[in-house]
Each structure stands twice: as structure tokens, then as C-alpha cells.
Amino acid sequence: MPLSEHEQRLFEQIERSLSEDPKFASAVRHSDPKFHARRRIIISAVLILAGLGLVVYGVADSSKLWLGVVGFVLMLGAAAFWMLAHKRSQTAELRSVGGTATRRTRRGNGGIIDRLENRWNQRGEFDR
After folding, report:
1. What is the distance of C-alpha 70 from the center of its chain?
2. Gyration radius of the chain's alpha carbons
3. pLDDT (tens digit, 9 = 90+) per residue, 10-48?
4. Is residue 23 a contact partner of residue 101, using CB atoms and an 8 Å limit?
5. What is the C-alpha to C-alpha distance for residues 31 and 19, in angstroms, rounded to an integer?
């Protein structure tokens, strides 16, 4: 069911006010599992490249062959970390945002949220 023009304007106003709140935007971004999975994938890619560098250095300098083994183990661990992060990013769902934000309401005047809730609750009364 599409929104009326008035409801669309109110929805856009709410979106604008939420997008201007840096604390809210930061909380939503940091609670997004895809954000964390993307960061883990980047970290694992860097570790894979570092491991590859250690393998090449260990093979090039035959006296430090153990360094090549350490690089291979690092690459293996980073690849496992990448697969886990990739799996989480594919099945990630947003969870509720935790934090210290509180909702303050005034009983007399009421804020925009209270007015919107009242209008939403009363929408069925006008149709009858």
C-alpha cells in the first residue's frame, strides 16, 4: 500500500533529521555486521599478501626457510579468516542498535514521533 503525499513528506522529514544526527549514523554503521565483515576481509587480504611475501623471502633466502613456513601458516590462517568473514557478510542481518540514546517525550506538547504515532494509530478510524 503506497504512502500518501503527507506521509511521504513526514517520512522524508524523519529521514533528514536522522541523517543529520552523527551519533545515530555512527551507531547504525557500527552495528551493521556487513561493515565489520568488510573490514575483516580487508585485514585478511593484507595478511595473505604479507604471508605471500614471507613465503617468497623464505624461499629466496635458503637459510631462512622457516620464515617461508611461517608465511604459509599466516596465509592459511588469513584465508580461513577471510572465508569466515565472507560467510558472515552473506548472511548478515542488522541487529537493534545498542547504546545510550534515550527517547525523551513530553506529555503536553509531544514531539514529532508522538504525533506520527498518534496519526498512525488513528489512520484506520478515518477510513470507516
Report:
1. 33
2. 26
3. 888 877 777 777 777 677 666 667 777 888 889 999 999
4. yes
5. 16
